Amino acid sequence: MRDFYMRMLAFLGHRVIVAASNGRELVEHCRRQRPDLIITDITMPEMNGDDAVAEICRDESLPVIVVSARHTAHLARSGSEHVTAYLIKPIGRKDLKATIGPTMRRFGYFRRIRTEAVDGLQAVADRQIFGQAAALLMRTAGIDEHDAFDRLHLSAVDGNRRLVEASQSVLDGAAQ
Length: 176
Prior knowledge:
With 176 residues, the chain is mainly alpha-helical. Helices cover 62% and strands 7% of the residues. It has two domains: 2-91, Rossmann fold, CATH 3.40.50.2300; 118-175, Winged helix-like DNA-binding domain superfamily/Winged helix DNA-binding domain (Arc Repressor Mutant, subunit A, Orthogonal Bundle). The chain has helices at residues 2-11, 23-33, 49-56, 73-77, 93-141, 145-158, 163-175; strands at residues 38-41, 64-68, 85-88. Strands 1-2-3 form a three-stranded parallel β-sheet, sandwiched between helices. Helix 4 links the parallel strand 2 (64-68) and strand 3 (85-88). Helix 2 packs parallel to helix 3 (49-56), helix 5 (93-141) packs across helix 7 (163-175) and helix 6 (145-158) crosses helix 7. The longest helix has 49 residues, at 93-141. The N and C termini lie far apart (65 Å).
């Protein structure tokens, strides 16, 4: 199967950087070379495909196509948080071609969603710091909300910093 994948992937215009003979080897090669896509069988010596994929994707997610000889309930649960697509043997060139493109697009879509979610959470946290700093200025300097926001903005501009950094400085200064 490894030889088949190597030939077919090259035929389809892809460069194979790792052709591992077992799950442990797959993990080691992928950590060193960070491939754009992983295609792995579930049944592998030394470490099964589920465990290898979980290990590889612990620090950074990658698109993963899992191959199995049979479709079972286990396959549907297999590595669910890391697996982007499944293929059931026997696999032909058309199967690979039809799966790789959508897998890469789907993974890109999920990566964008994850990034947007993280950015949104960071924006909420930044807004909270900004609000706390403004409230502190209002209490300690006896100014209104508008003037507190203006001071924070001026502090950020004068210090060539982001607003959240200027706000955090105000909070840090009060804590001392």
